[in-house]
Model the fold of this input.
Amino acid sequence: MSEALQTNTTSTFADNMSLPIHRWFRYTAGFSAQWVEETVTEYLSKSVHSDNFRVLDPFAGSGTTLLSCDKLGVTSYGYESHPFIYEIAAGKLLWKSDTDLFLKTADDILDQAKSDHSAIEQYPDIVFKCYDEKNLEEIDHLKKALYSKAGSSFAYKLSWLAFVSILRASSNVGTAAWQYILPNKKKVKVSSAFEAFAKQVNLMYEDMKLFQESPAKKCATLIKQDARKASTIENNSIDLVITSPPYANNYDYADATRLELSVLGEINSWGELQSKIRPGLIRSCSQMVSKEKKIRFNI
Ligand SMILES: C[S@@+](CC[C@H](N)C(=O)[O-])C[C@H]1O[C@@H](n2cnc3c(N)ncnc32)[C@H](O)[C@@H]1O
Done:
C-alpha cells in the first residue's frame, strides 16, 4: 500500500460513503475504493499488456473492485453468491443507464405508493419490531408499487436498489457496527420512508450523471455464483486478483442482511436465512458450523 494511502484513508468501506455510486448502499464488509483504484493503477502501469489488463474479484460483495475498474476503464470480473448482495452490486454497475428513464420510473413508484391506501401485508415479526406504523405503511406501499413494475429493466433494478438502501434510515431501531439490526435499541432520528426514497433516487440520479461525464469507462462482468465452483472465466486470463474473502472472523454475511430480506419477503424466519442464503456462502462465523461440529465430534 502506498504511503499516501496509508495516511489518507482507513481502507474500509466508510471511505466509500462519500464517493459517487459506491455510497448507494452501506456495506460494512466492503473495502476502500480508493485503495482499489491505487492498486489497479500501480499494477496496470507495470503490466506489459496494459491494453488488455483484466482484474478479478472472486468475492465481489457490493462491487467495490468492479466499479473502481469501470471508473479506470479496466476490464473486470467478479463472483458473488449472496443473492441480495449480488443485486446490490449488479444495480451499481448499471450506472451508465438512461438517467431520465430511471428518474421517471422511480417517481412513478413514489406517486403510486403515496396514493395507495391498502392494508399492510403480512411480515415476519422482526419487521414489525423495526418500524413504527406510519413508516411501515410507507415501506409496504413503496414495495407494492415497486413490485408492480418488477422485471429485468434497469429502471426497476435501480429503483429496487433505492428502496433497499433506505430500509435502515427509515427503521426506528439501531444497527450495530457490522450491520446486524438491534431491535431493542430505539433510534431518535428516523427518516420518513417516502422522503428517504425521494432523496436516495435523487442522489443516484446525480451520481450516474457525474460518472457518465468522464469517458474512461468499461463495463464489469458480475456473475452470481459460488466462487468455489467458478469455471466461467478462461484459465490464465486474469492479471490481477483484488479481493477480501470471507475470513473466519465471525462476521455473518447472511444475518447482516436480515432486515432487508425480511422486508422483501425473501425470508420469513431465521431458519429460512439458513436454508436460502447460507448454502452458497463460505462459512466465516462459528455459529454456522455448530451443526457440523456436533456431527463430527458426536456432541
Ligand atoms: C468481505 S466481503 C467482500 C466485500 C467487497 N470487497 C466490497 O467492497 O463490497 C466477502 C463477500 O464474499 C461473499 N461470499 C461468501 N462466500 C462466497 C462464495 N462461496 N462465492 C462467492 N462469494 C461469496 C459474501 O457474500 C461477501 O459479500
